[in-house]
Amino acid sequence: MVRYGVLHKNNYINSPNLLNQSLQLKQNSNIFFDGQITRVEGYLESTASGLHRALNVYQYYHHQKPIIFPLQQVLGSLMNYVTNLRQKNLKPMKVNTGIIAMLDQSYDSKKAKNLEIY
């Protein structure tokens, strides 16, 4: 018995080594990537990375500075996760509160941190 659609293989690029935070290739700045190939996971995340890439393509072709979202925002933290060279064991990532950078604060509990984020 064969169940189609059960097994599939995703291919990824080594985003931290190849891409900057505007999702451009470091070696060739007129090539951009987005979506699952950059190791974001999920429909929302892939669409958001596509929007981020589209905004930066616009900026690039109009000779303007790239748009880099702050690390305290969801999209900025996700783009930082997939492009940060300090990530040793990079796995596909959905948006979650664990990757959002906080403003030099420590919290007593995860609940207190999540209350601050929301």
Walk me through what this model shows:
Helix content is 35%, strand content 0%. The chain has helices spanning 15-18, 43-61, 74-83, 110-117. The longest helix has 19 residues, at 43-61. The protein is globular and about 45 Å long.
Distance between the termini: 47 Å
Number of helices: 4
As a whole number of angstroms, the C-alpha radius of gyration is 16 Å
Q: What characterizes the major β-sheet?
A: none
Low-confidence stretches: none
List the secondary-structure elements in sequence, H or E. HHHH
What is the helical fraction, as a range of percent? 25-40%
What structural class should be given to the helix and strand makeup? mainly alpha
Could you give the count of β-strands?
0
Shape: globular
Strand content: under 5%
Mean pLDDT across all amino acids = 87
Question: What is this entry, summarized?
Answer:
This protein is mainly alpha-helical.
